[in-house]
Amino acid sequence: MSESFLKGIEANEAESTTTNKKVDGDRNVKIKHNLRKRKHTDEEDDKEKDTASSSSKQSRTKQTESKRPGKAQQSTVLLERTRRRRTKPRNIVSKANVSSPQDDFAKLFLKKMNIITNINIGMNTCIHGICITNDNLIWVNDSKHHVKLFDSAGNILRSVDLEKSPVFNCCTPNGDLLFTEGYALGARAEVIMVPREGDPRRLADLSTYAKNLCGLLCQEEMIYIVCRSKAPQKYFVIKLDMEGEVIETYRPSPKNVNINHIISHYGRLYVMGTNNSSLFLLENDRISTKDKVNKVSLRDTFTASACVDNHGNVLIGSRLTIYVMDPSLQRLHKIRTDDLGSIRSTAVDHRDQLWIGTYEGNLYAAHYLSI
């Protein structure tokens, strides 16, 4: 290979190297320029984003501030809300306006009885029994061995003298009077009839069955009598026909209880305890004493009298108070009678007049219902 050819090759390689270096230098310059340009563009984009974000925040802040009331406006808004709360009707029922069943029951009765009739039978003459005939006449018996018949206005129609003191009484369907002597001194176990016309007579002698006869009741042509046996002392009920013949005997089960009254409540017969006014039902040929029927009872309260009014309420007379049990026997109302004296007997006539007999010998007729 010639020397000139070799020099030509070297010269070409040198020129090529120079050219390549120049090209590489230009390329590097261009790359650096593009990087600086891109960096500048990115910085401008970031500034624009920051500016936009700041503008957005300022815009939202201004909107919020424009919606937010000032202090004076805030006070006005609070006052308006308070006024609305106070004037807005609430679905709340005042306890004072809600009446209970007990309150409704109490409203049926006068706060103070209205006395219509006051008759004095006699000084120191206890009125033991009162009963009402089907035609609204009033039989009254007292401790001075008398029975009297009154009309509903208090006019006396008949007076009968007796050998013994009558205590418990009831009326027959035709208006005759039946009575027993209870625990009076020298009392006999007899049922005495006093007809509306004619002389008294003995209807039944039950001395072989009992020592004392107490409350009695006539229902469906049958007579029911509360009895106390001789020792050992037990209480039971005897049923008689209208001729005085013994038909049936009801004995307490499962336990013995002290009883002295018998009442009819919606056709069912109940005997009443002497000292707590517990009612026990006559059913299935016995006196059911497992549980008392009434949901209320009067502890340590002597039951001087018991009757049922025309609305199914049971009225109990005890000293200076009339206790009233509602027809469901679940609620109790108390009527004070301090001005009348000590109560010994009660009955309600067919005009809703309550008749009261006292230990002091006064016979009262009174309105006791508010309806």
Automatic annotation (TrEMBL):
<dbReference type="InterPro" id="IPR011042">
    <property type="entry name" value="6-blade_b-propeller_TolB-like"/>
</dbReference>
<dbReference type="InterPro" id="IPR015943">
    <property type="entry name" value="WD40/YVTN_repeat-like_dom_sf"/>
</dbReference>
<protein>
    <submittedName>
        <fullName>Uncharacterized protein LOC111107085</fullName>
    </submittedName>
</protein>
<feature type="region of interest" description="Disordered">
    <location>
        <begin position="1"/>
        <end position="97"/>
    </location>
</feature>
<feature type="compositionally biased region" description="Basic residues">
    <location>
        <begin position="30"/>
        <end position="39"/>
    </location>
</feature>
